[in-house]
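We emphasize that the prediction below concerns an isolated chain of 334 residues; any contacts that depend on oligomerization or on bound cofactors are therefore not represented. The input was used exactly as deposited, without trimming of termini.
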Amino acid sequence: LPLQSPRTPHCHPTAEDNSDDDDIPVAGFKRGRDEENIEESEPSNPFPDPTARVRPSDYLRAQCPLCFGGEFPRSHTDYERPDDDHTLSPDTIVCIDACFTQKRNRQARDLPRTHPRTVFIPEQDAEAMERYVDFIRSKKIPAKKRTNTEGPDHFEGSLRVPKSVLDGCEAGFTAADSRREKASTQFFDDTALMALLCRHDVVLFIANMRSAGEKQHYVMVLVETLFQHLPLPYRMGLLYDIGCQTEHSCIKWGFLDRYIERLTFGISVFHAFGHQWVCQIIYHPCKRIGFGLSDGEGCEHFWHSISRLIAYLWVCGVGQSILLLAQYTNNTPV
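Result of the prediction step, given as a token string:
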């Protein structure tokens, strides 16, 4: 596998994926200029439209050949029932979770040290996505209008769970409240890690979190990065502790609108029983077509495997910590 460039690790298509590096837009925001003043335009999605490809990128196929190798499109014959609509079955199932024990004390930053096959999302991509998400939410106007809004309770957009149920799930989970502090930004520079793993517990991407709470833009930047490596018709199943709230935000504010028809949201098994009964019926992985026995708890296995590094990572520099974790994920199976 060719070594990836330390400048842009895995976030955009590479030359081996039949794309020209010169044609790849750099993640960031567009700026409007005139002769008299310089003015920042409205933030847009920092990720370009995915490159047309016939199969997943070389990076994904090297990370997990079982998920991303083989022929495409899939036949779906392994897990579909005769009465199932195979178009609803995901081609790949991934899970996302955050770990707030993987912190780093606030201190002077050391020189960046990038592993040639790093799994970390560039910090500037996460910051750009944060500005984009905050801008969309600040407009106070949902991207799509509500439907079936009769009475105090209603369904928003294409959601199959009423708003009252979603509100109950949001109140019951700290991860759904991005304003709730899980780690102090006064004492910690990096407050947590958020990882995206495939169903075989292989680490695909990691985002270094710097916020006090589990903010939603980290989920968005991980999913956007993954779709940059996938063919256009590729369908994906996403298991997350608060998958219902993530889909709600995507429908309400238009996040991930380029992929929403190809995304099937679910809730990881360990947290599913803490959700409202109606939410469990819709989002439990055993109720989702094509999810099989995937439980979405691969991230928990990963956090346990790197728990021995907690004490050292708290006091080492950011460059050293990212290099060590990238080396660990590339050499040690979960």
